[in-house]
Amino acid sequence: MAIPLDGVGMDGVAMNGAGIGAMMDVMPETRPQTPITMRFGPRPADHEKITVNLGFVDLGHVDLLVSEGVYANRSDFIRTAVRNQIERHADITRQSVARKPIEVGLRRYGRAELEAARAAGARLDIRVLGLAVIADDVPPDLASTAIASIEVLGSLQASPAVKRALADRLL
To answer: How many domains does the chain have?
Structure first.
């Protein structure tokens, strides 16, 4: 069943699906999926766009909570739900970080740092939970010789050439 797009939410979140009224016509057992595209954070550099597929009934519950004033909009609900789940599983995160060190937040790797590692004969094993940035001034050959492995739980920003050079090292 195709339902027209709602458009863009109050804080710039593009959302698909209809309001709760249109969803009442859908049988719950059919549970078609409606994608919701979200952008987290106030500025483009601080977010990653994702798509979440929700059934019409689940989306209807979200819309009901928004219409009752519990949440400002759909994205407010989604952000709150994500944060609540992260908090709920914080012990798992702490245990994982204790077992295998990982940098949390934003970590930037610039040309000088990678050149210093290469000059010392060291190769970096990069692990980041959040956003890892390999600066635009880092050439692919430097990234390739200075980085042994890279694991990013979140998002990696690097030039397409650097990403290609590191493709075999991405965990």
So the answer is: 2
- Domain end (from 72, 88, 104): 88
74 and 107 fall within a common domain: no
How far apart CA 94 and CA 137 sit, in angstroms, is 34
User: Is 127:102 a contact under the CB 8 Å cutoff?
Assistant: yes
Q: 88, 112, 137 — which closes off a domain?
A: 88
Asked if 45 and 96 sit in the same domain, the reply is: no
pLDDT (tens digit per residue) in 82-103: 999 999 999 998 888 888 889 9
Identify whether residues 128 and 78 lie together within a single domain: no
Please tell me whether the overall predicted TM-score, pTM, comes out greater than 0.70 for this model: no
